[in-house]
Amino acid sequence: MKVTIIGPSYPLRGGIAHHVYYLERELTERGHTVQVISFRKLYPGLLFPGKTELDTSASRLDANGIALLNPLNPITWARAAKAVKAFSPNVVIFQWWHPFFALMVGTLARMFRRKRLKCILECHNVFPHESGPFDRLLLKFAAKPVDSFITHSSSDRNYLLPFASGKRISVSQLPIPSKFAGAANQTRNGRTLLFFGMVRKYKGLEVLLRAMPKVLAHKECKECRLLIAGEFYDSVDKYRTLIHEYGLEEHVSIDNRYIPNEEIAGIFERVDVLVLPYLNATQSAVAHIALANALPLIASRSGGLSEIVIENVNGLLFPVSDADALAEQIIFYFSQNLGPVFAKNIQSTATKGREQLGSVIEEMVQEW
């Protein structure tokens, strides 16, 4: 089978680019021939608050993508369509995570449909975390010519249903990011919490900071430390002010940068629990990195997070935005010494999301 993946790939950085690498590897290992069509540029400067779109990691996750696309330049869409048609794939898989790309995706899917090429829309987020007034119209335009859909959580599948009437929607876990897995630490009996990844309002870091004074006031948790590792897309000064107001300076460390691939496993190895206090979430690649490292989770009951966290098996859950409930769960986690128990559970119940995704794609093509 010949497969074209359209999405960002190295040297572009970020979770979607990492996902494209793992998907390309899985399909290639299954004996398929894969073409990756990537972007020359993803976002205009106005929409990208980070320092650079390029991945400067020494450890490269390179899917050998052909950098052709600019989402604002239809000439590049035509060039990409020409390359795909020359490859003549059995299926084209679009990566979808933001309606900003809808005009490009919808136009290309219509061009491919005229050439009788089947298309899958793989949705990392059906709707963006920060919504806009035209999101539904843009999704409708992109989804209409698509043949089948993949989501990574049941909640996202429900969001997609009105836009995919009569079409197949499959739910598949995200691939296990094996390149980010280090030596599994089953002890997890320290007192270090981790908040990892880019910092934006919807990630709920403020909720975690509000919870910390109550955590530190408990006798079992007075030595707790919080490591915040990731690039701030919000103002870092706002969070530094909160840290000062709550008297957390001695207990909170900030590593404000894009964390290169080769450092990720080391960070996850030396902490004791990952906290995901998201205000809204569809799924989380960071959660899967934690599971790949046998690192337990404490997460909000938001979207797909409650599908990843199996309560009292690999982690704990709390109500969205409830800082007091989060504090209570952190205290419970440490006072009951749940780290070693959950870490052992994670290792014994490891899932195989990458293999599952490959099977879903193969089944869709066989149905056609």
Q: Determine the fraction of residues in helical runs and give it as a percent range.
A: 25-40%
Order of helices and strands: EHEEHEHEHEHEEHEHEHEHEHEHHH
Trace the largest sheet across and list its strands.
3-2-1-4-5-6-7
- Number of domains as seen in the coordinates: 2
Termini, distance in Å?
13 Å
Instruction: Kindly name the structural category.
Output: alpha/beta
Compose a concise summary of this entry.
By secondary structure, the chain is α/β, with parallel strands linked by helices. The chain is built from 13 helices and 13 strands. The relative contact order is 0.13.
Can you tag this structure with a few keywords?
alpha/beta, 368 residues, 7-stranded parallel β-sheet, Rossmann fold, 6-stranded parallel β-sheet, 2 domains, single chain, 13 strands
Q: What this model shows, in words?
A:
The strands form 2 sheets. The protein has a 7-stranded parallel sheet with strand order 3-2-1-4-5-6-7, sandwiched between helices. It has 13 helices and 13 strands. The chain has 368 residues and is of the alpha/beta class. It has 2 domains: 2-175 and 352-367, 3-Layer(aba) Sandwich (Rossmann fold); 179-348, Rossmann fold (3-Layer(aba) Sandwich). The radius of gyration is 21 Å and the shape is globular. The model has no long low-confidence stretch (mean pLDDT 93).
Q: What is the strand and helix layout of this fold?
A:
Layout: E1 2-6, H1 15-29, E2 33-39, E3 66-69, H2 74-87, E4 91-96, H3 102-114, E5 118-123, H4 135-143, E6 148-151, H5 154-160, E7 168-171, E8 192-196, H6 205-216, E9 225-229, H7 236-245, E10 252-255, H8 261-269, E11 273-276, H9 285-292, E12 297-300, H10 305-308, E13 315-318, H11 323-335, H12 338-348, H13 353-367
Parallel strand pairs: 1-2, 1-4, 2-3, 4-5, 5-6, 6-7, 8-9, 8-11, 9-10, 11-12, 12-13
